[in-house]
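Repro:
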Amino acid sequence: MRAVLQRVSRASVSVDGTITGEIGPGLLILICAMADDTDAQADAMATKIAKLRIFKDDEGKMNLSVRDIGGAALIVSQFTLAADLRGNRPGFSTAATPDEGKRLYDYFTTRIAATGIPTANGIFGADMDVSLNNDGPVTIWLEI
């Protein structure tokens, strides 16, 4: 699985002008299931993200997790993270099939929620409009 994590003060996702998910402080998680990904990888990704200390403590050091600050996660499917850029037009053959991608996306969302982090979502496969205020900015690439 591949993910881009953005520490945000707020984020939302809309489909056809309707907000489908929004959060205050927390993480915007752009997530992509790759062709051979498993539930175990989704579990590992969720565990790593829940424990990742990228929020400021009282001394201004990145020492707190999203759970520590009482933050939430906005989880948005992002198959383009699987892009193969050998040419000028990206290819996506390394992404999971749509059915398996949706299953792993839904599974990953339940695993994040199981860590105690409130979640909000986009709509898998939809053309989404994502809005965010990147806090820091802090943006992290993660692959498991």
